[in-house]
Amino acid sequence: MIRRRSTPWIHKWSRFIIAAIATCGALTTAYLTFEKLTGGQAACVVEAGTKGCKDVLSSPWATVFGQPLALFGFLAYAGMVIFALAPLAFKAENNKEQRQKIENLTWLLLLSGAIAMTVFSGYLMYVLAVNIQAVCPYCIASALFSLSMLVLTIIGRTWEDIGQIFFTAIVVGMITLIGTLGIYANINNPNAGLPTTPTPTGQPTQGIGWEIATTSGESEIELARHLKKIGAKKYAAWWCPHCHEQKQLFGKEATAELNIIECDPRGKNAAPDVCKAANIKGYPTWIINGKQYPNVQPLKKLAEVSGYKGPQEFKNFPDYFQ
């Protein structure tokens, strides 16, 4: 008498566990998306003096295609929940063949999704440690969720062709990595697409940032002096690529005339309390005549909102923002 081999418990419950983990990820990213869109601050417990969630969520890496990165994370997790539970909608006794097709397809989708999310999370962990140098429990949790789903996807069923796992991992992993680097190209290289601007090399100088490579014309200098005279302030962080981009628009000489508030406690002449009091949520942010203007601003826009009436033949990137 041949005894039928019992199904390992992990094979029975893997889809449910993956769905549970993905649901946790979806709830987390939904919360972060809500806080980002409503201008709130995510609850975050880190050691005093350590950069935390606020710094991460206000960094340029937290926005993709003009939308919160957490929103795309929510969609990814929601997709994993659907892939994990989809076959359960088919009763085995009613349509075994159809269910088997759905089983095979969704396992492949789960594998691809878990690989893509793990690679992307790995890149964000690198950015968190090297570029932003902050502690973000939500980001770490998301990376663990992704890795856990990948492990469960691999061990949660019997794969007839192990080579399929490696092939999928290589193809999906490479596509995800190339796509990720492409999405963040303008952040990793603040001057991408601006041929007249020398590209900063290496990491920014600790506490100071990248060296300003452009020079200023009369218009840039006069505008900078006008902004300082009326009390306009630029809130920035030394490691922020977009803050450097704003400096490049003004040029070295004009930037020296600006009233720049350093928000990172590790920066030169840092004033994080001033930034907190001003309710600064991202860098750079201008406050001119009591109104906030977030992100990099064209010099013509700064001239307009500040009431500047001087020369406006700005020499740096005349076609930028057009």
Describe this entry's structure for a reader.
The protein is mainly α and 322 residues long. It folds into two domains: 9-188, de novo design (two linked rop proteins) (Up-down Bundle); 218-306, Glutaredoxin, CATH 3.40.30.10. 54% of the residues lie in helices and 6% in strands. It is built from twelve helices and six strands. It has helices spanning 9-38, 53-57, 69-85, 96-132, 137-155, 162-183, 185-188, 218-229, 241-250, 252-255, 272-277, 299-306, and strands spanning 63-64, 67-68, 233-236, 260-262, 285-288, 291-294. The strands form two sheets. It has a four-stranded mixed β-sheet with strand order 4-3-5-6. The chain has a two-stranded antiparallel sheet with strand order 1-2. Helix 1 runs antiparallel to helix 3, helix 1 packs antiparallel against helix 5 and helix 3 runs antiparallel to helix 4. The chain is elongated. The N and C termini lie far apart (80 Å). Mean pLDDT is 86; it is low at 189-199 and 318-322.
Ordered list of secondary-structure elements with their pairings:
Layout (H helix, E strand, L loop, with lengths): L8 H30 L14 H5 L5 E2 L2 E2 H17 L10 H37 L4 H19 L6 H22 L1 H4 L29 H12 L3 E4 L4 H10 L1 H4 L4 E3 L9 H6 L7 E4 L2 E4 L4 H8 L16
Parallel strand pairs: 3-4
Antiparallel strand pairs: 1-2, 3-5, 5-6
Helix pairs in contact: 1-3, 1-5, 3-4, 4-5, 4-6, 8-12
